[in-house]
Amino acid sequence: MKIVALICRILLGLLFVVFGLNGLHSFLHMPSPNLDSTHAALAGQYFGSVGASGWMSFVYICQIVGGLLVLLGRTAPAGLCILAPVLVNILCFHIFIMGGTGASTGVVALVLWLIVFYSYRAHFAGIVSTSAAPAA
Amino acid sequence: MKWLYLVCRILLGALFVFAGVMKIHPFGPQDMHMPAPAMQWFGVMISSGWIVVLGYFEVLGGLLLLIGGTLPLGLCIVCPITVNILLFDILLAGRQGIGAALVLVAFEVVLIYGYRGSFAGILSYKAKPTLSSSAAS
User: Fold this and answer.
1) Residues B40-95: pLDDT tens digits?
2) Does the global pTM surpass 0.90?
3) Distance between CA A120 and CA B123 in Å, rounded?
4) Rama region for A101: left / alpha / beta (φ>0; ψ in -120 to 50; rest)
5) What is the ipTM of this complex?
6) Inter-chain residue contact A96 with B2, CB threshold 8 Å
7) Residues of A in contact with B43 (CB under 8 A)
């Protein structure tokens, strides 16, 4: 279990660092997806507004920072907190904009995230508490 | 200070629940005057259905804030949404609505400070995986 958690943590961190860097400066050769006309139009609109504005650069930087914090290990809980909202939106992007195309990488990242989260679960006790109160 | 936290918590929670319900079931006047990139963003979010997921997360985060005991998890949901509201206002909407977003940020900063003890676990830089239930410390 210790080894599984370690491997998942390194894979999760590398996945986000590599794809974050690729987003900022494309070096991976990714095949262009085959989309039907509805989803091709949605993808065009999406990249026309979000892509053209520089919003994605912020997301890629979050991926790199979150991935590095996870790779570092000592800061994995903070890294998981940064990667979680990014991951939710990656899944939403592939489901709603791409119509399911390319969602498999997102699902793999989700499984890795859940395993790493489980291995660091003790550190999340404070935020999943149901009886939190302000510090005196 | 407890009153300040209570007021921030109720206002922030209510704002997110309201904004979330508006995204799931739009009601009232829908007259939006926004720059073209912002309108295009709303267009693609609404026609793809993505906006409903955002709406549910806003309602969930807002309710967790209103409940009170679950505030830290609620903040973990509404803070990333707030970051993206800011990015939307700065990058797409020409900063015309940034005042409201900065109010959200102010409430969140107050609440994160007030509940700082709850965030010690995730902000640790000496985190260790829990290896087994017996080895947990």
Assistant:
1) 999 999 999 999 999 999 999 999 999 999 999 999 999 999 999 999 999 998 88
2) yes
3) 12
4) beta
5) 0.91
6) no
7) 45
